[in-house]
Amino acid sequence: MTDRTPLVAANWKMNGTLATIRPLLAGIMEGVREDCIAEVAICPPFVYLAELSAMLANTEVRLGAQNVSQQASGAFTGEISVAMLRDFACHYVIVGHSERRHIYGESDNDIAEKFAAAVAGDLVPILCVGERLEEREDDATETVIARQLDTVIQHAGIESFRRAVIAYEPVWAIGTGRNASPEQAEEVHEFIRLRLARHDDACAGAVRILYGGSVKADNAENLFSMANVDGGLIGGASLNADDFVSICRATR
Ligand code: PEP
Questions:
Q1: Could you tell me the residue ranges of all domains in the chain?
Q2: CATH number assigned to the domain covering 7-249
Q3: Who lines ligand 1 at CB under 6 A?
Q4: pTM (2 decimals)?
Q5: What is the DSSP string of the chain?
């Protein structure tokens, strides 16, 4: 049996100010100190990485970023490199979040390049994949997820998934209050694992696959009880310390 320590990662998106993130983080750190077997990670906006890096020093809670450039350095105004994230002790970086794909037009190829740059620079990418509502309604969920995954496998190699996390985030469930049922999530998570297993069985069995999309304190336990759901990527509910801590405690 593969040991996949559950991971619960907070994606704060573009929310908070110094005045609000300090008590939020303090509440989370206090709450996850007990009764929490999950690994916990927080992905704040870039400008708060230094603050969180200091607050999280010598704790078990890990730091992540929400995006990264595929370029190493140079004339790329507004971008942030892997080396810059390493400077602030980031462990994780989210790549391919649906808001990056669909609002900012990041392509499968851009995301594959970011994933490869993160792995090469010793960050652990949290690769987001997921279908839009119309794609699910057209029965194209597996086609979309396969395309998103295969582009990364072709570009970065299957072995790079040894140092990666995948998050299945159906776009229709993000921030909508409408989550996938545990069975719907499990079906796609299993599909993802089988897709990786075509290339490397051991890697497929070991990779953690998180579910994201309107996870709340009252639905987390059912979602996390599914065999192939190894934790969650949490947006809205990670902005409230009590809610987020309850979700972290819902992993077994
Ligand atoms: C997300 O944006 O990654 C997410 C899962 O958001 P929410 O939990 O708010 O649906």
A1: 7-249
A2: 3.20.20.70
A3: 11, 169, 174-175, 212-215, 233-237
A4: 0.97
A5: ------EEEEE-TT---HHHHHHHHHHHHHHHTSS--SEEEEE--GGGHHHHHHHHTTSS-EEEES---SSSSSS-TT---HHHHHHTT--EEEES-HHHHHTS---HHHHHHHHHHHHHTT-EEEEEE---HHHHHTT-HHHHHHHHHHHHHHHH-GGGGGG-EEEE--GGGTTTS-PPPHHHHHHHHHHHHHHHHTT-HHHHHHSEEEEESS--TTTHHHHHTSTT--EEEESGGGGSHHHHHHHHHT--
